[in-house]
Amino acid sequence: MMGQQSGIQEQLLFCFSLENHVPKDHLLRGIHRLLDLGDLRQQLFGFYSPMGRPSIDPELMIRMLICGLDLDDPVPDHSTFSKNRHGRFRESQAFRLLFETVLQRCMAEGLVKGEGFATDASIIKADAQRQHRVEGSETVDWGDPEQASRPVREYLTALEEANDPQESARTLSLTDPAATWTAAPGGPAFFAYCTNYLIDLEAGIILDVEASTVNKAAEAKATRTMIDRVEDKFDLKPEHLVGDTNYGTATMFGWLVDEKDIEPHVPVFEKSERTDGTFGRSDFTFDAENNRYICPAGKFLKTAWRSKKKNPYRYRASLLDCQSCPLKSQCCPNMNHRQIDRSPHESARDVARAITKTDAYKQSRKERKKVEMLFAHLKRILRVDKLRLRGFSGAHDEFLLAATAQNLRRMAKRLAINGPAPQLIPA
Fold first, then answer.
1. In this structure, are 92 and 174 located in the same domain?
2. Coil, strand or helix: which one is 192?
3. How far, in Å, are 117, 122, 275 from residue 377 at the CA level?
4. Quick one: which of 84, 168, 178, 388 has the most CB atoms within 10 Å?
5. What pLDDT, in 10s, does the model give residues 113-133?
6. Sorted alphabetically, which Pfam families does this protein's record hold (predicted)?
7. Which pTM was predicted?
8. Residue 11 domain-assigned?
9. Rounded-to-integer distance, Cα 418 and Cα 75, Å
């Protein structure tokens, strides 16, 4: 016989267990187990007053940002996060400590090999509207710095320290003046920062992260900073570095090859090759023993004694040789004689050119996708395609937290932790 519900009676009390609703093999359980915040209290101890009411547990706030919150845990007021982010967390370098603690765990688990690193940068939109900007020709009255917002105060302090006259010539945001006015190909311009990653190629673990302005020189500088910091902190230096053409400058090659003894698996950024059908610099052979170039006709290009002090790396052919040369129309049709400027780091560029012809370089080109995949995950899964905090300090904080979460996720998935699942609700 078919039954019939006699009536609807609302249930007044519910017994809910988070343990019963989260699968035993859920990724958050592995992250929860791997996140060790044992050193956090010691790092923050000097930034809390010994008197007064007990504060919100800093470990609770960090876990809220990374793993989430238990159902029974009290939710702190949003101002608590703001005060700690802009105060003791930033002053104590708590987010940097958190990132390095997770990285050390990755290294202890054998996920970092240390033989090959890859570097790249990705543009992240700033929390600044396009309409609230001033052009470089306009004068900005920031008013009393003490009454200005935190991003403006930080910008004015950095501007005073840098004393860069070109800084006032660029387009500025009135809410986040440190952000860069940039544009993607085919799209409208916007304000943004760059997040720079340095990863180990073994398992795609992020070794360091740095915020920078949006330009090639700043990205290369950020990479040098990260390589030095990883070496100083963890005594870890790669045998080779993988990067794209943005890192293929002569200065970068000189630093990698001559100073750091790191093989650059980076395409050479060539400006000396010509597109008009005339000879490029690659058509000339450099004779290092005699410090001269040999042209396709067999003549010599040497450094002129008159210009050695002004530019010791400029090589010039003889006017007589060029005027009587049958190849002049293919070499210097619009000049009396041919001249070549050689970079002081040209030998390092030659090393990079030779590496591009090896099988190891071809493999590096494939492995570089690991850092690109991390940026795709950062924007599409973690939704960090636009910043919520302003200023370089805010960008640093968000980029560090995001990289920490990515390392925890990668470690939990690679280790595939088995055994008893950790309780998500404290006993």
1. no
2. strand
3. 19, 12, 39
4. 178
5. 999 999 999 999 999 998 888
6. DDE_Tnp_1_6, DUF772
7. 0.83
8. no
9. 31
